[in-house]
Q: What sequence folds into this?
């Protein structure tokens, strides 16, 4: 696999949703998305209703565990409904990789085992990475495309 990502800078934004602590890509993530999609209309103000985000942060290399949020972008001052939280995503530059549900494990392996270690230009930046799902994404279609955003900084 050899994929050259698009490099994109984004301003800071806020994502609100439901969070779990998980490991790997097990059935708990689709379950979280189902729970979130049943509740997202409770969010008072959604900045871009055509986008949803799967935000990954607090990865523990020893256990493989991380926090995963299924959410949407909101104005920073939006009050979360009961049981939801919000995370601020800092302004930064990202390497953007297209993928599908069928290939998501392979693309993460490629990013961390091949692309980042061999990049002559970038290293992993600090902060969360995220999946961006636009309104053309269909979770029932394992070949439907979404995007993985990895924070990067120039070497």
A:
């Amino acid at each position: 696999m050899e994929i050259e990502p698009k490099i994109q800078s984004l301003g800071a934004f806020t994502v609100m949703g439901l969070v779990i602590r998980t490991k790997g890509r097990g059935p708990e993530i689709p379950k979280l998305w189902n729970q979130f999609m049943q509740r997202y209309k409770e969010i008072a103000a959604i900045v871009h209703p055509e986008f949803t985000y799967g935000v990954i942060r607090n990865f523990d290399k020893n256990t493989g565990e991380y926090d995963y949020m299924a959410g949407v972008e909101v104005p920073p001052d939006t009050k979360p409904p009961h049981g939801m939280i919000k995370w601020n995503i800092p302004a930064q530059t990202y390497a953007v990789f297209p993928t599908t549900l069928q290939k998501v494990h392979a693309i993460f392996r490629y990013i961390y085992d091949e692309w980042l270690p061999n990049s002559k230009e970038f290293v992993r930046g600090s902060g969360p990475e995220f999946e961006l799902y636009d309104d053309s994404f269909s979770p029932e279609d394992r070949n439907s495309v979404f995007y993985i955003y990895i924070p990067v900084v120039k070497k």
Remarks:
- Helices lie at 28-39, 104-118.
